Amino acid sequence: MGLLSGAARALVRGADRMSKWTSKRGPRTFYKSRGAKGIGFHGRDGRFVQVKEMVPELVVPDLAGFRLKPYVNYRAPEGTEAPLTAKQLFLETAAPAIEKDFKAGTFDPARLDKYGFEPTQEGKLFQLYPKNFPR
What we know:
Blueprint: H1 3-13, H2 15-18, E1 40-42, E2 48-50, H3 86-93, H4 95-104
Antiparallel strand pairs: 1-2
């Protein structure tokens, strides 16, 4: 985008949108830093009143004797396990239950939902095959 088209766009849309985002332009709760929220309010007399419920409480587990480091070096060797395929996932999760029911004589092909099979994706947030998916 050229300089002239950028200036024209700023004039058409309004120069206010192109200006720098500061604490003057944001809401009262916006502080230009790392997104810290206020932990209280200013009272009528101008003094700051701290609200205990607004103070963040950091829950940190006891890591005494923990050997792992929080950083993984980018030169670390790749894992040795192969990526999990759909067939391997089926063989590890649903296949043992199906085999057990088949040997016991209680396997019913009409009740595959017992093993995690879903005949339709209706009502799902993330559908396996959405309507616009080319098959």
